[in-house]
Amino acid sequence: MAKATANIVEYKIQSIVFPVEDKHLQCRRLFYRGDHAILDRDNRILKMGYAQRCDFVTYLNACSYQKWQRYANVKNLTLHLEMSGKAELDFIGYSKKALTVTRRDMGSAVFESKDKKEFVYEFPENDEQMVGFEVTALEKTTIYGGYYTVEVDKNDINDVVLSLATTTCKKEEFIKKNVSLLSDELLKGDDDIAQNLYVHVVDNGQTLTDKDINGKHIYLHRNINAGGSGGFARGMMESLHQKPAATHVLLMDDDVLVLPESIRRTYNLLRLIKPEYKDCFISGAMLYYENPSFQHEDIGTVDVNGYDCRFKALKGIFNHQELTDNLENERLYPYSKNSYAAWWYCCVPINTIKKNGLPLPIFIRVDDMEYALRCKARMITMNGICVWHMGFVTKYNGVFDRYQQLRNLPIAQSTSKILKGLDFMPAIYHYFRIEMLRFNYNCAELIIDAIEDYNKGPSLIMDTPGEKLTIGKMYLNDKMKPLSELNAGEVSYQDCYIDEPRKLKDRIIMKLTWNGQRFTPKFMDRPGLVPITFDPNMQPQKITLKTKLLAVNPYDRTGVYRIRDKKKFRELMKRYKKAVRYYKHHKEELCNEYRNAFKTMTSEKFWKKYLGLEDK
Description:
Largest sheet: 9 strands, antiparallel
Distance between the termini: 44 Å
Helix content: 25-40%
Number of helices: 17
């Protein structure tokens, strides 16, 4: 839609969206606040009664104008709404400085039309973090939809071919639904993204057929089960060689609820992005599927503090029903050298892949962190670019969270020269000690396996299928049973995460005796069974000198007994000390081996051989 100047065009950057999925109804305030009104989900329209008020300055429907101006050459923001009825519209901007939220009223207007009609409002120039509108019905009013546009110079519009690579393994219903949604919402249209979006589904489980995954620009690739790193490596390779060539690869998990509008906004941002930001990753937020108003993370960071090593959200957890959290999420956070974008939704420029290579063959855990730190990636985030994903507490898995993570962290450090100066051994000892004190001998064994397998050098992960290394250890995961089958009596799920005040005497006893597993007379044992958490939370006072613990998963009402075993304790301590001793004596030698193998194991030639694709 050309303006007065020949080179200036109007460009649609984002659409107004309504909560059409069942899950969206649980977080309706992310779409609009105020009165519920009557939502016609089938036709995607909102019907308002007299005096009802709806506020669209929300996480999903406000325009993040400050960020659009920062990252793209845009001006003259305009709102287009299709409506009928009679309503008052107020146009508003919000910003937050320190603890204060400021509201700027930019104008108002009265809309009136018996028939569906487009209403257009051009916002005054501003640098507000969020800009949007409120609607107050003066009679029965229907909102059919809308969108925001900006003015851009044709010369500032980039050619973009976006490849979406998603890896799946035996999660057929999730992936089929998501692919169908992307096809219907994005690929079957007649707009620009429909011509320039390609979807690559990498099936690690090899359970999908061409009947399950098909359509315009949709491709199914059967893959060996090489985990997330192998699946996304395959997706990157397919994107590198697709016709037409991809300019960007969007890596996305399979078990997510995706909002197609998020992908559309990502694409539009790439089309308009300034040259100085073309090498940035676009990091989509993860909102909790089980609590869909809350954001877990949109940028992660690795925090190593003495004995502890944590992956955590750079910004903290936000409740996006609240305006103040929307604004806090939009502010520009200080750059952290250990920041990364997780692969539940991460858009990477194809030139970055050509320059820095493919992921490490480490199956799962740490792969996304290592890749971002290796690439020295700068991250762009924006409200409304997100997916809903199950939280990780309910998905705790000893093999993934103890063996894979604690093996892969030192591998990543050795190969990519990331996290310089950090010594993971204190953190590994910390986790080993926690599991031993909780009589979780299987997890303690997995930690020892992690050290021993790192000590075997890069040939282990290069020559052995990741599935064999990982799945072969699944027998060490807890075999949880319904509490009703364990004859545990009454269990308070709330008490699982609560500990008692720590006593100095018990602190000393715990340290000296490793919770009764060394030289402790039987008369010191304390009777009674206590519930503890199944995940890595430590409750030292509760477990001191107990001989039997009940580890409980309060989310599905299952549990497993953990029983003190002094013989097992001695065996594992002996193995642990031997593994650590070998690591310390060969640390530099091992580091050099990994570093020398780095270019090989991140190359396309290696990955083709690893995945059995040499003839393709």
